[in-house]
Write a structure and sequence with these properties.
The chain has no helices and 35 strands. The strands form 4 sheets. It has an 11-stranded parallel sheet, with no helix packed on it. Strands 3-6-9-12-15-18-22-26-30-33-35 form an 11-stranded parallel sheet, with no helix packed on it.
C-alpha cells in the first residue's frame, strides 16, 4: 500500500502530525509540519519511506518526558521519529528537509525494546538542515532492546547546528529495559556534515549495559565541527550502566579529514570502557584509525586522548578520577605518527588535597595521550 502526503500544512495537533501504517510505502514531500504535541512525523515500520523537502518546526509542544522501564528519563517530541520494526525492510531516505526547534531530537532512527530480535534497517540522511533541537540533532540506536539487529545509516552533507546536547549520538546497543542486548550491529557513515555550535559533536557507543558482543562500525570523514564546548568526537566501546555489565562490545571507526575548531575539551576522545558505578566492564574495545584531521590546540590538553578504562570511583583511594584498566588493552590506534604516548595510574595513600595522577611515561613529541 502506497501512502502520500504532499504540499500540505499539517499543524497544531495534540499528538503526532502524521504517521503511517506498518509495512506501507510512504512519500512525505513538500509539507509544512509544525507545532504538534508529540512528534512531527512518526514512521513505524515502513517497507520504504521517502521524506523529501519538508519543513518541520516547533514539534513536541506537550513537552512529554516519559520514564522508561529502566527507569530513565526520556523525551518525546522529535521532528521525525523512525522506528524500525521486525518483518519489514525499514528502508528510508530523508533528504532536503529543514528541522527547527524540536523539544527532543531533530531526527531519531531507533529500534524499540518491544520488537522481536533480528530487525533490519537501512537509512540515508542527506542534505538536511537540523537546528535548535533541545537535545540532539540526530539520535541513532541500533537497539533499545532486541538482539541480533542489523542497521545501516548514512548521514551525509547535512547542516546540524545549535542543538543542545549533541550533533549526532549513536549506539549499537542501549537497553531501555533490563534485557540483555547481544550481537547488535550498527554500520554508520557520517560524512561531509557542517556541525556548528552544538553542545557536543559526534558521539559513538558500542554498548551500554546490559550489553554483550555488540559492534558499531563507523566512518567519520570530512566533517566540519566547530564551536562545541565539549569534545568534537567521542567514542566509547562499552559502558557499565544502572548496575548492569558491558562486555566484549566494540567500536571500529575511521576518523579522517575532519576539520575541528573551537572545541572546549580534548577534540577527539577515545575510551575503551567506563562504569557508572561498580558494574563489570571487560574486554570492550575501540579500534580507531585517525587520518589527516585538522585539530585545534586546546590549552593544557592533548588533541587526541585515549583512555583504556575509567571508573567514577577509584578502588584504591576512593576519589573519582581516571584509573588504568589492568587487563586486555582496549584501545588501538593506527595512522598516527609523532605523538606523545603516556599511561597513568593512581597513587594510593594520598590525602584529597595531595591526590595527583601517577607517573607519566612519555615518548615522541605531543598531541596524543593514552591513559
Amino acid at each position: 500500500m502506497a501512502l502520500t502526503l504532499r504540499d500540505l500544512t499539517v499543524a497544531n495537533s495534540g499528538g503526532n502530525g502524521a504517521s503511517n501504517q506498518p509495512g506501507a510505502r510512504v512519500l512525505i514531500m513538500r509539507n509544512e509540519i509544525r507545532q504538534h504535541g508529540q512528534h512531527g512525523l512518526l514512521l513505524s515500520g515502513p517497507q520504504e519511506a521517502v521524506v523529501l523537502d519538508n519543513h518541520f518546526s516547533d514539534n513536541g509542544t506537550k513537552q512529554f518526558r516519559p520514564v522508561t522501564p529502566r527507569p530513565a528519563a526520556g523525551r518525546q517530541g522529535h521532528h521525525i521519529l523512525c522506528r524500525g520494526t521486525s518483518g519489514v525492510a525499514n528502508s528510508l531516505v530523508i533528504a532536503g528537509n529543514t528541522m527547527q526547534r524540536a523539544f527532543a531530537d531533530g531526527l531519531a532512527l531507533v529500534v524499540f525494546f518491544d520488537e522481536a530480535d533480528g530487525v533490519t534497517m537501512h537509512a540515508r540522511v542527506i542534505n538536511n538542515t537540523i537546528e535548535a533541537s533541545e537535545r540532539r540533532g540526530v539520535t541513532i540506536a541500533g537497539s533499545f532492546g532486541p538482539s541480533h539487529n542489523r542497521v545501516t545509516i548514512d548521514v551525509s552533507h547535512n547542516t546540524i547546528r545549535h542543538n543542545g546536547a549533541q550533533t549526532i549520538g549513536a549506539q549499537a546497543a542501549r537497553p531501555l529495559v533490563t534485557q540483555l542486548i547481544r550481537d547488535s550491529y550498527l554500520r554508520l557513515h557520517i560524512a561531509d556534515n557542517d556541525c556548528q555550535d552544538n553542545g557536543e559533536g559526534i558521539v559513538l557507543f558500542g554498548g551500554l549495559g546490559p550489553a554483550e558482543e555488540n559492534v558499531l562500525d563507523g566512518t567519520v570523514i570530512g566533517n566540519r565541527i566547530t564551536g562545541t564546548p565539549r569534545h568534537a568526537i567521542r567514542v566509547i566501546g562499552g559502558v557499565g550502566f544502572g548496575g548492569y555489565a558491558a562486555q566484549r562490545n566494540r567500536v571500529r571507526v575511521t576518523i579522517g579529514r575532519n576539520r575541528i575548531a573551537e572545541a572546549g575539551e580534548v577534540p577527539i576522545f577515545l575510551q575503551g570502557g567506563i562504569a557508572e558505578g561498580q558494574e563489570t566492564v571487560t574486554d570492550n574495545a575501540v579500534v580507531a584509525q585517525l587520518l589527516a584531521n585538522d585539530l585545534p590546540t586546546v590549552p593544557g590538553k592533548p588533541s587526541v586522548l585515549i583512555e583504556r578504562w575509567a571508573h567514577r570511583q577509584c578502588c584504591t583511594c576512593g576519589r573519582a578520577h581516571t584509573s588504568t584498566y589492568q587487563g586486555k588493552r582496549s584501545a588501538a590506534i593506527s595512522g598516527l605518527s609523532g605523538y606523545s604516548i603516556y599511561s597513568q595510574r593512581c597513587n594510593p595513600g594520598t590525602s584529597p588535597n595531595e591526590h595527583l595522577p601517577g607517573k607519566f611515561y612519555r615518548a615522541a613529541s605531543r598531541g596524543l595521550s593514552i591513559l
